[in-house]
Specification:
Blueprint (H helix, E strand, L loop, with lengths): L4 E2 L2 E2 L3 H8 L3 H10 L1 H7 L1 E5 L5 E5 L1 H16 L3
Helix pairs in contact: 1-2
Amino acid sequence: MKQPTFNGRVLLPMDVIEAARAGEPLALERILRYYDRYINKLCTRTLYDKDGLPHIGIDEYMKHRLQAKLVEAIVVRK
């Protein structure tokens, strides 16, 4: 059976999502890896080094915050 895709990318299987909602750590890690490129894109910023020169980089603080929010949205049931 062909796996469903969205914009050419294979979607996460439903059993992985259900396992993550149940608190399975490996399933949560798989979801975080699945969304890693998207989160990196959201956290890309112009950062400045000690000499004041700009460079493009990932805001690690924001990345960790977004990952925590994603895990919270998956695990916490309202």
